[in-house]
Amino acid sequence: xxxxxxxxxxxxxVIVGAGPxxxxxxxxxxxxxxxxxxxxxxxxxxxxxxxxxxxVLDPVGLNALIPDWKAKGAPINVPVRDDNFYMLGxxxxxxxxxxxxxxLMNNHGNYIVSMGNVxxxxxxxxxxxxxxxxxxxxxxxxxYGENGEVKxxxxxxxxxxxxxxxxxxxxxxMELHGKYVFLGEGVRGSLTKEVMExxxxxxxxxxxxxxxxxxxIWEIDPEKHREGSVTHTMGWPxxxxxxxxxxxxxxxxxQVYVGFVVHLNYENPYLSPYMEFQRFKHxxxxxxxxxxxxxxxxxxxxxSEGGWQSMPKAVAPGVALLGCGVGLVNVxxxxxxxxxxxxxxxxxxxxHTAIKDGRAGDALVAYDAALRSGPISKDLKRVxxxxxxxxxxxxxxxxxxxxxDMWTANITGxxxxxxxxxxxxxxxxxxxxxxxxxxxYPKPDGKLSFxxxxxxSFSMTNHxxxxxxxxxxxxxxxxxSVNLPQYAEPATRYCPAxxxxxxxxxxxxxxxxxxxxxxxxxxxxxxxxxSQNIVWTVPQGGDGPNYPNM
Length: 550
Prior knowledge:
By secondary structure, the chain is of the alpha+beta class. It has a domain at about 10-70 and about 115-205 and about 310-380: FAD/NAD(P)-binding domain. The protein has 14 helices and 24 strands. The chain has helices at about 20-30, 60-65, 115-130, 190-200, 275-280, 285-290, 335-355, 365-370, 375-380, 385-410, 450-455, 480-485, 490-495, 525-530; strands at about 10-15, 40, 55, 80, 80-90, 95, 110, 130-135, 140-145, 150-155, 160, 165-170, 175-185, 210-220, 230-235, 245-250, 255-265, 295-305, 315, 320, 470-475, 500-505, 510-515, 535. The strands form 6 sheets. Strands 1, 2, 8, 9, 10, 13, 19 and 20 form an 8-stranded mixed sheet that branches. The protein has a 7-stranded mixed sheet with strand order 6-5-15-16-17-14-18, covered by helices on one side. α1 runs parallel beside α7.
């Protein structure tokens, strides 16, 4: 195919992703210098369409960015009124007294929010300052300069046939060039991954660790609704099969966020995180809450869990990684939005100084230094051993030792365990099927629990079917020749959207089928595939889930 010719547009800063990190960066840049040209490119059909988060928001980032957010009408209306922690068994649970929890676990002063709606509001604030925001513009390629620096991105390529050739309606997209490019794609972004590999940004760091977060929004009986109530659980149904836990947040309008997180370093390839989530809702405590209610939305998203010791270098020539691309989630708090906002602001300040000094295309080392010395580092360093302790010693051992480590760090600023290593990647942690027995999950009842395809319809996911599959196999033979005999092809179970199937028909060899139309962009396949054979890339702009209030 002939070299594609594209028009180019020049900006001071090009930002990929209209999440909390990217929008905070855009707003801060314009606050610092109204004359800077700033563009934000978002792959979702609208800002917020691809945002999925718990979410209990620590407003520290927003307070720093827009101190008068209340007066400006931010959709942040439900303060946390009570915190509850439970250890569940199959038939009941034990409440863990709040006095045993380190102070950092206290949600006093935080808010239950839809981060999708918060981002929609932040986009309005950004546009009022003169930021250009283009939703439905997937960024499919990096553009590099003559000296190997990041120069820009390709956005808005549409109309390819399924085989990758241009159709009659093909649009090549545009190159958007910037003095600096910020990647705020969230967890495991395709461009972020490319940049990390090209510049070896994870050298000397622990492998990034991940969880899979799944979430449903329920409308429940008003008599059971307790606006502002926050509940977290651990234990059943995961047991020794996997680490993880749940969250139940009561927001306004008799709605409840019901979420479940499974750490992706589990060994048993027969485990289905999605089915564990569905089973969880049948626990008596949860079933009683949801009885008589209705599920109104569903979604799923990977969560970065490696924390302090897994943070890659966040800068390379011409480019900076923001938010979850760096892995700024505080795992025990299940919070990362505040750090994402702070990272966007830090990157903006470093870029503003550089541009003012006449620089462009260099590494914003001041930003990377700020991540490792400012409030983000303080937040992450004191909880850095919780995840590795859980991985090594299981739920109870990890809870006791991690609690001790956090308490000591909270009081003295010193972690008695130092900095523990994570060890294997989540893909490498997957065990061989021969060591395990298949798990017989109860059939969903259609009232509390649902099959994957039914639930995916509640994510409003849509992909133009004539385009190339955005889920690519490095070697198409691996799923059947390697993953099926060795791991019982776990893609058919770890995917929370039913994208992957092994089809066995009489007289024919098994076939691996990718139903990319179902994909909710969680990135689990890119993370957990034991052969690291699946590569998640962006579909054409606007495709994917259309989350309303996630």
